Amino acid sequence: LYHSMFYNKLPAMWAKVSYPSLKPLASYVSELLERLLFFQTWLDLGQPLVYQMPFFFFVQAFMTGALQNYARKYSVPIDTVDF
After folding, report:
1. CB under 8 Å to 3, separation ≥6 — which residues?
2. Closest by alpha carbon to 32, among 13, 57, 7, 12?
3. Which phi and psi angles does 4 have, rounded to 5°?
4. Residue 56 · residue 62 · CB < 8 Å
5. pLDDT string in tens for the chain (83-residue length)
6. What b/e string do you get for 11-42 counting C-beta neighbours within 10 Å, with b at 16 or more?
7. Are 51 and 62 in contact (CB under 8 A)?
8. Is the pTM of this model over 0.85?
9. Is-contact 65 57, C-beta < 8 A?
């Protein structure tokens, strides 16, 4: 851990459980804080008008969920809904 921090690299133990990133450690931490702020603001103030897709770990799951919510709301088959 110390070696990675000294050389500004993402520690391997963090990379195993993190979103994919090729950024140096300082930039990674800065981006992580931005992501956390985005989600904390979402919790505090409700759904945003615009979703910043790079902040999601698995964008496909978010998009699938949006399609499912739309299909349920308007009572249409999910396989007929598309972006």
Report:
1. none
2. 57
3. -65, -45
4. yes
5. 889 999 999 999 999 999 889 999 999 999 999 999 999 999 999 999 998 888 888 889 999 999 999 999 999 999 899 87
6. eeeeeeeeeeeeeebeebeeebeebeeeeeee
7. yes
8. no
9. no
